[in-house]
Design goal:
The chain has 757 residues and is of the alpha+beta class. The chain is built from 22 helices and 29 strands.
Length: 757
């Protein structure tokens, strides 16, 4: 404790300034928590900082006694400005503040003998009038309860003529394992640590902690603790199947970034509960198999089916598992059952089990969720039914001006839809969904985490539009500078909804909530779906920062640094199989047929008309970058292209988990043996490539040059084997005979040394 106190004192001393009379010149508050219980707050006033400091430290040490060892969170606040008023005036003043957005402390006397900092007031619901009261409100019951605990006061008069004093404060925070840091003194960020720019390391930490919180909320049954009111650690006693599934989707997005094994274990446990208890399979009148997610009161919500599909598609992509393809089809059939085949309009809520209509419309979000889910399923399976249904739905969305709702799910969907249907109407819808909303995004008082999701989905679409000159005129319909400003502002503003230790320490059970996200105007509510939206937005923003060309962060591995460090393979070995790794070659071949082959290919070289390729990852997101040989191979070719989806996307993730870090991933196809391909060394010395044959001819050989000039050969079977090749000496594909069928390879450069498992 004394060590933390001694480390924070200099930063306080250098920032505190004396007040004017008649108030105490220096007033200092010390708040201390062990991370497991609500902070105890001590304060003192004096004519010098030294006297105030030594007095409050003495009171703190005496008050804590033997409990001042172990984990320490220490926050120091000091009074920097005062506004006197009467209690009646304060009551009126509170009406001008949104619920829980009063950001001042309060003193009940001019000498500040009875005084509270803002965090005490809000964390003890002293200014909270309940969900029916939209503004700050003097809760006399809670105020008296805490004043009794803090100062031993038995009763307060609460007379409108009483004098009170609004306190503006500065602050600093320190912990055993953290260096002292200043807190914002005022404004909407008041009371949290100063972070001027969001950097990848900070985002990664937020994603780790937020997803870790969600993992901790999965009970042994697989059911979530749905949510908490943290002021008094009270549970939210209801449940929602839709939010169960959508939370799992966000957890999988986070796992793609962190690779955390505990997180995935929680996901799979909770998936088991969802599929065993909340999903029901039915047979429709046309004998089609369908499935529905069942919620409370035997309701079938369109959105619940949708987010369940999103979650299962994401799981399938990340793991390469084919276990849920049949169920995905049935869930999608359930959505089609809820869509009018003429108008494209969706019905929102059905009764179970008779499938009668309960509500034609409930919330706008169900529409975008349903369309986005079908779009993601199309990306996975290339089944035309799902794309047709989305296009039907968009005819309805466009006709009814759904852009005016600024729905983040529709932004997700239109970004995905334009990958396959680059229709000007769809692009314009995506732009209109945000174009007149940018002031709201930038300046909205509440954190509103879905706004970041809205902006990130739109950002992905705009980035593609900027590479398509035929649609350049559409970009004039949105202020791109203002868009970028609003995006950055919203991303950093979400930090105000994170339970930093300097916030969490004032609530009933800090250890339970630290590192999670909250909704301030709902009494700092933490609900699994609240956390999921913060997570999804920050995952997308981290990917965006990592993909910025030339960024020093772009080359960082997406997987957790907890991945075991592998052993380098024998450097004398030029070619070897990747140990303990097998590719589902049937699914990879199907992916090529449905998602790659229909798209335009790029020639490897002008004199080789039958040797073409498609970029899976590239520097600019195009299908052409990285196909032609280059003298200097860029390591920035990591942006996923439109063909990096479904099984192929899951395969790349699996390779990263294995310990590899691929870039410049491409699929190459060679149809003829008429022209001899020269040996090509297109990687720096000692670098490796990974080859996965998708289809090969019997007479096709992979050849490489040994250091002594000898040419060695091997035939690559398309049997699911992945081959590591050291390519700096030159390599090529060579045909002994005219090939009977095309030779197709998935090829990627590797940033790190390959490994032996």
């Amino acid at each position: 404790m004394l060590d933390v106190i001694s480390r924070i004192e200099p930063i306080v001393a250098s920032n505190i300034r004396p007040l004017n009379r008649p108030y105490p010149l220096f007033t200092v508050f010390l708040s201390v928590s062990d991370g497991r219980s609500r902070a105890r707050v001590f304060h003192a006033s004096a004519d010098t900082f030294s006297d105030a400091w030594h007095t409050v430290v003495g009171r703190c040490l005496a008050g804590l006694g033997s409990s001042n060892d172990g984990n320490i969170w220490l926050r120091v606040d000091w009074v920097s400005a005062v506004q006197p008023l009467q209690l009646g005036q304060l009551r009126e003043c509170l009406k001008t503040f949104k619920r829980n957005y009063f950001r001042y402390g309060l003193a009940l006397d001019e000498s500040f003998e009875i005084a509270f900092i803002e965090q005490e007031l809000n964390a003890n619901a002293m200014l909270y009038g309940g969900v029916q009261c939209p503004h700050a409100y003097l809760n006399e019951k809670n105020f008296t309860r805490y004043a009794r605990k803090r100062f031993g006061l038995e009763a307060l008069a609460f007379s409108d003529a009483d004098n009170v004093f609004m306190l503006t404060t500065g602050g600093a925070f320190c912990a055993n394992d953290e260096q002292p840091q200043l807190l914002y003194p005022s404004g909407r960020s008041a009371g949290r640590r100063k972070i001027v720019e969001l950097k990848p390391d900070t985002l990664l930490s937020l994603i780790h902690s937020g997803s870790g919180y969600l993992a901790s909320q999965v009970q042994g049954s697989g059911r979530f603790h749905y949510g908490w009111h943290p002021c008094f650690d009270r549970s939210i006693n209801t449940y929602n199947s839709l939010r169960h599934a959508s939370t799992l989707y966000a957890m999988l997005e986070a796992w793609e970034i962190t690779g955390d094994a505990t997180l995935m274990a929680s996901v799979e446990l909770s998936m088991g509960y969802l599929l065993a208890h909340l999903v029901k399979k039915v047979r429709l009148e046309n004998n089609e198999a369908a499935a529905f997610v069942i919620d409370l009161q035997d309701e079938i919500k369109l959105g619940a089916n949708a987010v369940c599909i999103l979650m299962l598609v994401k799981y399938t992509e990340l793991t390469g598992s084919g276990d849920y393809l049949e169920l995905l089809d049935a869930l999608a059939q359930g959505i089609l059952f809820m869509q009018d085949q003429q108008s494209g309009r969706f019905v929102h809520v059905l009764n179970y089990p008779d499938l009668t209509i309960k509500e034609s419309f409930r919330v706008i979000y169900y529409n975008g969720e349903a369309a986005f889910a079908l779009m993601r399923l199309y990306k996975l399976t290339a089944d035309q039914r799902w794309l047709n249904a989305v296009e039907k739905a968009f005819e309805h969305f466009i006709a009814e001006d759904y852009w005016q709702y600024h729905d983040h799910w529709l932004s997700y969907c239109v970004n995905e839809l334009t990958l396959y249907r680059p229709d000007e109407r769809y692009y314009r819808f995506g732009i209109m969904n945000v174009a007149d909303y940018l002031d709201f995004v930038e300046k909205r008082m509440t954190t509103f985490p879905t706004l970041l999701e809205l902006m990130m989905a739109t950002k992905a679409m705009i980035d593609r539009l900027q590479r398509q000159p035929e649609f350049a005129h559409l970009l004039r319909e949105i202020n791109l500078d203002k868009f970028e400003k609003a995006l950055k502002a919203r991303a950093i503003y979400l930090l105000n909804g994170y339970f930093w230790p300097e916030f969490a320490m004032f609530f009933q059970n800090p250890d339970k909530i630290v590192g999670s996200f909250f909704i301030r105007h709902h009494a700092f509510r933490i609900r699994i779906d609240d956390v999921e939206h913060y997570l999804s937005g920050y995952v997308a923003y981290l990917k965006h920062l990592r993909a910025i060309p030339g960024s020093s962060h772009q080359s960082r591995r997406a997987m957790s640094t907890q991945t075991p460090e592998p052993h380098a393979i024998d450097r004398s070995c030029k070619i070897t199989k990747l140990k303990n790794f097998t590719v589902d070659i049937r699914r990879l071949r199907d992916h090529f047929i449905h998602h790659v082959k229909p798209r335009s290919a790029t020639l490897y070289a002008d004199h080789l008309p039958d040797y073409v390729g498609w970029a899976v990852t590239s520097r600019d997101g195009s299908l052409s970058d990285g196909i032609k040989p280059e003298n200097e191979v860029s390591k920035e070719g990591m942006l996923e292209t439109e063909i990096c989806c479904g099984y192929l996307a899951g395969l790349l993730t699996a390779l990263k988990i294995y310990g590899l870090c691929p870039y410049r991933v491409r699929i190459m196809r060679l149809d003829s043996g008429d022209v001899e391909i020269p040996f090509q060394a297109d990687s720096p010395h000692g670098e490796w490539q990974l080859y996965i044959p998708i289809e090969t001819s019997v007479g096709a050989l992979f050849q490489w040059v040994e250091p002594d000039g000898a040419v060695e050969s091997v035939h690559f079977l398309a049997d699911g084997t992945a081959w590591l090749v050291q390519v700096d000496g030159g390599c090529r594909v060579f045909f002994q005979d005219e090939p009977l069928n095309p030779n197709i390879y998935l090829v990627m450069n590797l940033r790190n040394k390959p490994v032996k498992k």
